[in-house]
Amino acid sequence: MTPRTDYHSETAGEFLVKARVYLAEGDLLQASEKGWGAAAQMVKAVAEARGWGHQGHQQLYDAVDRLVAEAGRHELRDRFNAASELYINFYEGSLSAEAVGYDLDQVERLVNQLQPLAS
Fold first, then answer.
1. Domain 3-118: CATH superfamily, name plus number
2. Which of 39, 42, 49, 55 could lock onto 83 through a cystine, CB 3.0 to 4.6 A?
3. Of residues 103, 110, 106, 58, the one with CA closest to residue 85
4. DSSP characters over 50-110
């Protein structure tokens, strides 16, 4: 790993832990923000490791699409879409605690799947 991939990967893990704490406290907006952040940081780690752009939402979605095409693992897109739902929830506040918890589970799976690809 490079220093930047390390940074993004470690930040993803930290954000995921914080998201769970916020969820337990009932702060669904902050849980959502940190959940999105965890997914985005992990995708950034993989993109950085592969020399792909990762500045902005479109490049993050493009990176996920490239990973799906490479590995044929469509659940990566589904899990990233769950993170995107958390991003929207940070602004809209429309998801229930159960929905935020489910999406955080998907983000955790995404982070775990992508972690080895950042090495």
1. Nucleotidyltransferases  domain 2 (1.20.120.330)
2. 39
3. 103
4. HT---SSHHHHHHHHHHHHHHH--THHHHHHHHHHHHHHHHHH----HHHHHHHHHHHHHH
pLDDT tens sequence across 40-52? 999 999 999 998 8
pTM for the structure as a whole: 0.94
Distance CA 31, CA 117 (A): 25
**In this predicted structure, what is the pLDDT of residue 1?**
65
In the chain, % of residues over pLDDT 90: 83
- Residue 18: per-residue pLDDT: 98
Buried b / exposed e over 24-40, threshold 16 CB at 10 Å, is eeeebbbbbbbbbbbbb
